[in-house]
Amino acid sequence: MTDTPQKARKERANGVIVGACLAFVAGMVGMAYAAVPLYDMFCRVTGYNGTTQRVEQASDVILDETVKVTFDANVGPGLPWDFTPVQRDIDVRIGETVQVMYRAKNLSSKPTTGQATFNVTPMAAGAYFNKVQCFCFTETTLEPGEEMEMPVVFFVDPEIVKPVETKDIKTLTLSYTFYPREPSKPVAAAKDEETENRL
């Protein structure tokens, strides 16, 4: 008789432990999905990990000091593109807004879509590298054999000369890597497809 309540208590305790473990696993899966966009947002706001800043307008302060900006281009696995900077480096005045070009070519026999990730090194300079216009803000689709020049408009924030960790930086590297991506459907097309799937 005494075994039954004790056994029931033990089963309830085991059930609580199993429930807690399942909740923990579900929470960790949720955190894993949220971690990438949250980390990306944190990097964009703070410039952490060499992430550049996106701005709407150019700098109105231009210093007499210059900095060399070098350009790097890479293509991730699965994207059959040739991707290069048109020029390897330029010397720019700090605060001056400049435009440079990258060139991409689809080497395959079918349309392919990619989107670029980017960073600046040294990483401490990322918060001071401001992009006014960049192909990395949207996905790019190239037809078979199509070649495209893609502009980047940027300036180096004059504030870079003030902090101890960035004031002596003389060379920055802007690096892009294009990764394959499924092309996004226009909102109307996505709604039409959803309606068809329901029928």
Task: Write up this protein.
This protein is of the alpha+beta class. Helix content is 28%, strand content 35%. The chain contains 2 helices and 10 strands, in the order H-E-E-E-E-E-E-E-E-E-E-H. The protein has helices at residues 3-46, 187-198; strands at 53-54, 66-75, 81-85, 89-93, 98-106, 112-121, 129-134, 140-142, 147-156, 171-180. The strands form 2 sheets. A 5-stranded mixed sheet has the order 1-7-9-5-3. Strands 4-2-10-6-8 form a 5-stranded mixed sheet, with no helix packed on it. The longest helix is centred in the first third of the chain and has 44 residues, at 3-46. The chain starts with a helix and ends with a helix. Residues 33-51 have low confidence and may be disordered.
Task: Give the overall silhouette.
Answer: flat
Topology as a string of helices (H) and strands (E): HEEEEEEEEEEH
Secondary structure class reads: alpha+beta
- Runs with pLDDT <50, length 5+? 33-51
Main sheet attributes: strand count, strand direction, barrel closure: 5 strands, mixed
User: Which radius of gyration do the C-alpha atoms yield?
Assistant: 25 Å
Strand element count: 10
Beta-strand percent range:
35-45%
Count of DSSP-assigned helices: 2
| Mean pLDDT across every amino acid position | 81
Strand order of the largest sheet: 1-7-9-5-3
Termini Cα gap? 60 Å
What percentage of residues falls in helices of 4 or more residues? 25-40%
Descriptive labels:
199 residues, five-stranded mixed sheet, 2 helices, alpha+beta, 28% helix
